[in-house]
Known about the structure:
The complex is a heterotrimer.
Chain A: H1 5-14, H2 21-38, E1 62-63, H3 73-77, E2 88-91
Chain B: H1 2-5, H2 9-17, H3 23-41, E1 44-47, H4 49-64, E2 75-79, H5 106-113, E3 117-122, H6 156-163, E4 169-173, H7 180-186, E5 189-192, E6 213-217, H8 220-230, E7 260-264, H9 274-289, E8 293-297, H10 305-320, H11 338-350, H12 353-366, H13 372-393, E9 398-402, H14 418-423, H15 429-434, E10 438-445, E11 451-458, H16 463-476
Parallel strand pairs in B: 2-3, 2-4, 7-8, 7-9
Antiparallel strand pairs in B: 1-3, 4-6, 5-6, 5-10, 9-11, 10-11
Helix pairs in contact in B: 3-4, 6-7, 10-12, 10-13
Chain C: E1 4-15, E2 52-53, H1 54-66, E3 70-71, E4 74-75, E5 78-81, E6 91-94, E7 101-102, E8 105-108, E9 117-128, E10 132-136, E11 141-145, E12 152-158, H2 165-182, E13 194-204, E14 214-219, H3 222-241, E15 249-254, E16 259-262, E17 275-276, E18 283-284, H4 287-295, H5 301-312, H6 316-323, H7 326-338, H8 342-359, H9 375-386, H10 392-402, H11 409-416, H12 424-435, H13 439-446, H14 452-464, H15 470-482
Parallel strand pairs in C: 14-15
Antiparallel strand pairs in C: 1-12, 1-13, 3-7, 4-18, 5-6, 5-17, 7-9, 8-9, 9-12, 10-11, 13-14, 15-16
Helix pairs in contact in C: 1-4, 2-3, 5-6, 6-8, 7-8, 7-9, 9-10, 12-14, 12-15, 14-15
Amino acid sequence: MPITRDDVRHVALLARLEITENEEQELAAQLDQIIAYVEVLEKLDTEDVEPTSYITPMETPFREDVVSTTPDTERWLANAPATDGRHFRVPKIIE
Amino acid sequence: MSDLISLSIDEARRRLDAREISSLELTEAFLARIEATQGKLNTFISTTPEMARAQAEEADRRIASGDAGPLCGIPVGVKDIILARGTRTTAASAILKSYEAPYDATVVARMRAAGAVLVGKLNCDEFAMGSSNENSAYGLTRNPWDTDRVPGGSSGGSAAAVAARQCIVSLGTDTGGSIRQPAAFCGVTGLKPTYGRVSRYGVIAFASSLDQVGPIGRSVRDAAHLLRTIAGHDRLDSTSVDNPVPDYCSALTGDVRGLRVALPREYFADGLDDDVRRAVQAAAQQLQSLGATLEDVSLPHTEYAIATYYLIATAEASSNLARYDGTRYGVRLGNDSGLLGMYRKTRAGGFGPEVKRRIMLGTHALSAGYYDAYYAKAQKVRTLIRRDFNSVFANYDLILAPTTPTPAFKIGEKTDDPLQMYLTDIFTISANLAGLPGLALPCGSSADGLPIGFQLIGKPFDEETVLRAGDAYQRDTDWHTRLPQ
Amino acid sequence: MTDFEAVIGLEVHAELLTASKIFCGCSAKFGAAPNENTCPLCIGMPGVLPVLNRQVVEFGIKTGLAIHCEIQQRSRWSRKNYFYPDLPKGYQITQYDLPICLGGHVDIRLEGEDQDRSIPLTRIHMEEDTGKNIHDAHTDASLVDYNRCGVPLLEIVSEPDLRSSAEAGAYLRKLRAILQYLQVCDGNMEEGSFRCDANISIRPQGATELGTKAEIKNLNSFRSVERAIDYEIERQTKAIRAGESIVQETRLWDTDREVTRSMRSKESAHDYRYFSEPDLLPLDVSADWIERVKGELPELPDERSARFVSEYELPAYDAEVLTARKDVADYFEAAVGIHRNPKAVSNWVMGEVLRIVNDRKLDQELVIEAWPVSAQQLAGLIALIDDGTISGKIAKSVFEDLLDNDKSPASVVEEKGLSQVSDSAELESIVDGVLAGQDDKIAEYRAGKEKMLGFFVGQIMKKTQGKANPKLVNEILRKRLQSN
């Protein structure tokens, strides 16, 4: 399916990317070309083929229910762009 | 000094253990080499000389007390997509410009425990997305063989640094060929292990079902040493497999007699550079002369691998990269634009064009109405590609193929056409889709004097056979010993 | 005018009582300082990978078995992708196409009905909770606390088979009781460990097609759930009668104004782009595991209620009320164990004790030994009534004196001199005193005005400050009124 500029706008919103008019046009063209290429897969009949979601032939391992971390809030906040010393701060959320 | 930077791990080990040299001297030699060549090659995003010296001194103490394993005191470089506490870790992205890694990746912790000396964080394509190292927010890396050419990607810095003797071995990551393709372009040896062989904990994710950390060195033997150190089960990575880790070096017997080697027709089809074809065929014959058998086989779904890969990898990436939203770490832009505005400006300004393109592609592939046609379809074709390999490995021990269709291309040659860039991954991508180990090693030189590589793909968790065949080849040839000027 | 019926489905999120979070080793305990219970994983730092907490799966199986689900021997994890500050990775790890439990049902009974109704369930899945966004009044920004992020949740989804707010309330109470009996969730709605979203639509009575639904969020008490459902049914009915159509949307319940309002910001326009979580492998649950959990299931509310009827000969209504909360039922049984008068204990628990429990909002984490009146004290108090030491009326005042201390009822009675006067001679003289000079009233009684008896009893009680043994007073009084 061809990619339109509307598609690009929609996907850019979903992906939380701000794009300029120019980027919108360029991305539409590039993605359209790539999508046209990947549609080569349509040639294959995969009706009865199981999808590969996992490479490793295992079940997921468990950890036991024990507390194993020690509080170190300052360290985890150290890389934050904005904090009040205890919380991460973000622009006001409007619900 | 120049002889110090040319040492193999075994040679360095012998001289360190004999106290002929100290790790500090060895480390200083590499730091000086980096100092002298970094400006030209831009292989490192950051160097860590103080940390390296401290680790070297610690290594010297361990050597003195007789407590030194194979990697103790050996200078290594680490791709800047792998977290090492106390270093800035950027994934070559502006969005993580000043990100200080708050913890160690498991592979780094294991290298530290082994006494390895970390000289710096190596340049790469942003979030490992690229095949040329031109997508780094910290400037492109140049190929030491020809500085007008790319070193390959995404682990371009890791391969170029080893080729330029800025470290003895390095760590890269390989999602669609990102260790093997730059190894081929830079004339060094790189291994992508079986998916699950090496922990991904602390490795900044690109595509979780494809990413794998692996070693790059100037020889199979050096790569085997590093693999031994980093491989093995990690309870912090649920996809890591609890298989015993063999002593890869003792598997290097030089004996390949009776090894059944398959040559997939699809990898030698039209479009393959003539120099590459000749060199890879010669490598195959070399193995044959050592006692391996050669046969042509078919991997019929090869032509679908790139499409499959770019749907799966970008879909996973679009999700893995959602966390870079200006809230908890990294760059924030548009703080005055409301929450949505902050998100969109941060990500628009923080990510480079290729990363954005892939996020867009992956988001599209997963979005309502397209999931079945793109992502789900690609997962099914991935099954077909795996089946191709399973049926070949029912009768053969190894697959031998070129690593790349051409030698290193020129800087800027493919940047305007993303799809052309993607197509350069044609020979490496399938091993990631099937989760198989792949070893890239040099086997020739182009008319322009550029390195050419071939790869050996093995059965799951059979790194031993792959390494054994590669080592046997290197015992008999000298391509891997050649150095760029 | 067309009659409409409501179609209601509930999605319950229950935070599990594990020690640690679902994918990392941080404490899952409520009430820590902001961002205290965090680590690189639950803050979504680059490079982290999830590892599944076994206890979460155990609790999932346990819950599924208790509410009659089919436990899936293979399930898997998916990513639900959306951006929000309380979601650090930009996706929530949840179960989507292959959840751990399918089907099942919860049986409810409405007050006054004599039959259970079975509410069918769609599924149960496990997922990680999100963090918490807080508005910062000083800077007009929002603050984020990730303590709750990664606390394990079960999402229990009912079929849209509830028809009224009363049914929804009964369903939620029953479900919460079951989770509490299983000790997998503390059921605290105010702290958010038991939350509910309601999908509500209406359709003409008898129609089979579903109407357009609204999803109502922010329901943090049973009362909110019931009020919001009533409000929403009315809103939708009015809209349809006025010829408007219902918009499929998410609405927030405004507790203060008691209305639902649309949340239609761009930030809530979602396409979740689910796909299987590549960082976790499929979840396998062996038949042995399921069998073991089945063997360890505790007695559940329905079973306990049935046992209360047979073992203690309680009316079904009493049994239902007492077993609705595990701690209340435990308290009841503790008291009956000390003084075996089940019906009297039941009356006291359902009356005075539950009044205290509700007034003081005693949550289930408080061990019953620490309640303001111990089961021991209550049993002792009822024993004093039964042996005639005090009357029921006096007992109520003694009960107040027992609150928040560990005095024995007998010592309170003693201290305050509240023992009943049961001495016949003393009572006879009091009766005679009251009757003296009341000849006209005595005549009325003798003429057949039975209720004059009550008047005399009242007088006697007044004189004795309620301490006269009512049974004896009655006997003496009747004798005196007949003779003469």
